[in-house]
Specification:
The protein is mainly β and 127 residues long. It is built from no helices and eleven strands. It has strands spanning 4-7, 10-13, 18-24, 33-39, 46-51, 63-65, 73-78, 83-88, 97-104, 116-117, 121-126.
């Protein structure tokens, strides 16, 4: 079992930055692929970014991004702290959504691959 708690959301102006943090429980955090997803009102949950875990050694530390956030968002992990981060720069109003952290043994970019989810944190970008 993995429990995930997100923090760091808030209100920011267009062009601003936020860093989201996801704190995970469990002693095997490093095994899991970690992803960030987001869901805007009236829209489906969509993939934002992911970083590979040691369960699949060839992807360990590899990062994946949605085209809409490439070059603006950066995902990283600190296994010693059981934490994954999402640094968001050059934010746009269309980035407004609830952001969810998720963990998977063999996940990548699809929500159904992830077994564990946090409760979400709201990000609002004003124009």
């Amino acid at each position: 079992q993995v429990q995930l708690v997100e923090s760091g959301g808030g209100l920011v102006q267009t062009g601003g930055s936020l860093r989201l943090t996801c704190a995970a429980s469990g002693r095997t955090f490093g095994r899991y692929a970690m992803g960030w997803f987001r869901q805007a009102p009236g829209k489906d949950r969509e993939f934002v970014a992911a970083i590979g875990g040691s369960e699949i050694s060839t992807y360990y530390g590899s990062t994946f991004y949605a085209d809409s956030v490439k070059g603006r968002f950066t995902i990283s992990r600190d296994n010693a702290k059981n934490t994954v981060y999402l640094q968001m720069n050059s934010l746009k109003p269309e980035d407004t959504a609830v952001y969810f952290c998720a963990a998977a043994e063999r996940g990548a970019t699809r929500a159904y691959e992830y077994s564990y989810w946090g409760q979400g944190t709201q990000v609002t970008v004003s124009s």
